[in-house]
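dumping this here so i dont lose it
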């Protein structure tokens, strides 16, 4: 009779083992705010700053995800919900490896952000409200999206013909109309470092 030991010692490595290896605690830093508020720029600043401190990160940006993983989704409320659900599920997998995930998504409704937090786990989810008045965002308009939305070329555009629900209890708020990107980035860096760096 053959002895089949394929089922022995088959448990995967734990999150704690992986975090101990790279000496950091997995977290999702979720940046929400209007288009043009500074999410992508702050995400990039945070990524580079953490990299300089030997902290491993992964950035998920809304525009990039929409061109790849979620290119099949519409910008309807249902499409946006599924967009957030998928990226939250993917982010959770990275967190369980001890990676710091930086997400830059408009995620315009409280329900969407709650879905993301529930999937990822509230202890691992840091909500960052990148707060900037729409008139300032529209003046910046780095991609010309507001101009197109005003012409009716982009339907369901957040802040124009689709609502943005401001977070009421975000972990940290960055008022990017009152600070430089570097100042906002430093504030965020100082806030997240104690949450992600193992002793």
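and the seq i came up w/
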């Amino acid at each position: 009779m053959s002895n089949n030991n394929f089922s022995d010692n088959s448990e995967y490595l734990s999150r704690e083992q992986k975090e101990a290896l790279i000496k950091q605690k997995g977290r999702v830093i979720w940046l929400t705010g209007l288009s043009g508020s500074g999410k992508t720029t702050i995400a990039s600043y945070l990524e580079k700053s953490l990299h300089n401190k030997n902290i491993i990160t992964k950035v998920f940006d809304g525009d990039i995800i929409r061109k790849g993983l979620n290119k099949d989704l519409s910008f309807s409320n249902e499409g946006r919900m599924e967009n957030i659900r998928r990226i939250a599920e993917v982010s959770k997998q990275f967190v369980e490896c001890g990676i710091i995930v930086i997400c830059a998504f408009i995620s315009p409704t409280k329900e969407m952000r709650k879905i993301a937090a529930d999937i990822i786990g509230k202890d691992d989810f840091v909500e960052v409200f990148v707060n900037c008045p729409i008139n300032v965002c529209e003046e910046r308009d780095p991609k010309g999206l507001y101009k197109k939305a005003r012409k009716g070329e982009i339907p369901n555009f957040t802040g124009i013909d689709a609502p943005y629900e401001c977070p009421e209890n975000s972990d940290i708020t960055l008022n990017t109309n009152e600070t430089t990107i570097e100042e906002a980035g430093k504030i965020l860096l100082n806030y997240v470092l104690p949450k992600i760096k193992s002793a």
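The mean pLDDT is 90.
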